[in-house]
Amino acid sequence: MSARTEVAQQRKTSPTAAAGADFLDTRVGASKMVKEFARKIFPDHWSFLLGEIALFSFVVLILSGIFLTMFFVPSMTEVHYPEDALPVTMQGLEMSEAFASTVYMSYHVPGGLLMRQIHHWAALMFVGAMTVHMMRVFFTGAFRRPRELNWLVGFTLLILGLAAGFSGYSLPDDVLSGNGLRIADGVLRAIPLIGSYGSYMLFGGEFPGTDIIPRLFTVHILLVPGLILALIAVHLFLIVWHKHTQFPGPGRTDRNVVGYPLFPVYTAKAGGFFFIVFGVLAVMGATMSINNVWNYGPYDPSIVGAGAQPDWYMLFLEGALRLMPGQTEYVIAGYTLSLNILVPGVVIPGILFTLLALFPFIEGFATKDTGEHHVLDRPRNAPVRTASGVAILTVFFVLVAAGSNDLIATHFHLSLNAITWAFRVLFFLLPVVTFIVTKRICLSLQRKDRELVLHGHETGRVVRFASGEYIEVHRPLDEHERWVLVAHGPRRPLEIAAEEDAAGVRRPGHRRDRLRQALSRFFYEDRVEPVTPSELAAAHVHDEHDEVEASPARETIGTQSH
């Protein structure tokens, strides 16, 4: 084809494209949206990929879930597995249609087992990426004003992710998922007054009933994914509206964003990263076996598999139930209060998740900070926040480990009772220890940063002045290092007015202010003051004076490696 012909075709099609663009622009303001998004700047840091991993894992969940929905039968009707179908161990067994369709899909639908395992691994990756992403947001203070609402949106997404995982895990109606539902039924029944009614409503009668699988199927493929999609849209909108946070560095302030535009840089990077995430999940699904339900068999209330474990994100609940002593039931006014289930199944998770959700507001109340924050904190510069996050994570880690106490006992030939008691002690002791240690480490790192700013890096070179004085030569920090270390401001406990004014009248709101002051002291009483400009200038003058004195007769005495 000649160049003239190509130009003629371009001229022929251009009016149609222009008309289409004009149609979209006049109806929905496409040009304004494209202009706004094309000029949107996003900072560049590897930790920002954690949220993208969660998003792309959810996309893989949707795609693989559509495939599985075409073959899964959400029914608890009793059938017999075909005599001529694989696996041989299942032939002729009585089971629900849900379990039969899951096994048949795994063995006889082309790509069925691969899709099941990709879907399961994507679910684990989705919750894991959300968890680590929220940890990054928490420890860097990205939840501060104006992003408190977005923190709650992300927290709700995490809870919905747990609900999606649990409802999907329960659908095959095998022994493991059936036992998980039995535990959930027990936790629900332990709630005073409404527990038994809630169980009857959920299961349609006595456990297990015949309605729970169809209801979970509706929740898993319709209700929870719809809510997740809606909240993801809100989450991304708020990110664009508030502009993205950025780590401290030269030129980065709360009034700007240093990075690259959305088009074409980040669209290309995100597109490539999606295929990387999808490829990793596909490799995991093809090579790493997970949730082989035919090894467990259809659900039977009389069977409990030894060493049974739920997915990792529900293991903390299993651990809490295992640690709680069993002799803690009381009858009050005719109602049985099962503290052995209520405390570990409802109270402890409720306290932990409530602290996590409300922490931005607790910290904001303590600081009385009304300014906007777009530059992230270094975790060491917020020692109490960092220590609190580590303490909360420690509780979860102890509970997760306690959920595997039987496996620990069998693999390491230890006493199960001794392990359980050790975890009970660690549940109360280890968070306190990790809080104190983490806080002291953060304060020590702040002191180290202060010394670096004032004196620079140690070089290991010792020189002698003409006067006979010995000093170690320090290498000054470059502009980027110094900016990162001095970018944060001082944080001090709040000072409040006196309880009574000059006329002896009690000031309203004093009790609230005292609470705020006590909380502020908890956060900021132990602190390391950042380097002030006057201190930095004085340190530079002193260093220059030392260099001038040492230059006439400098002699290297020795070196030491670091």
UniProtKB/TrEMBL annotation:
Keywords: Cell membrane, Electron transport, Heme, Iron, Membrane, Metal-binding, Respiratory chain, Translocase, Transmembrane, Transmembrane helix, Transport. It is an enzyme of class 7 (translocase). Its cofactor is heme. One of its GO terms (molecular function) is metal ion binding. Its EC number is 7.1.1.8. It catalyses: a quinol + 2 Fe(III)-[cytochrome c](out) = a quinone + 2 Fe(II)-[cytochrome c](out) + 2 H(+)(out). The keyword DNA-binding does not apply. InterPro entries: Cyt_b/b6_C (IPR005798), Cyt_b/b6_C_sf (IPR036150), Cyt_b/b6_N (IPR005797), Cytb/b6-like_sf (IPR027387), Di-haem_cyt_TM (IPR016174). This is Cytochrome bc1 complex cytochrome b subunit. It comes from Ruania alkalisoli.
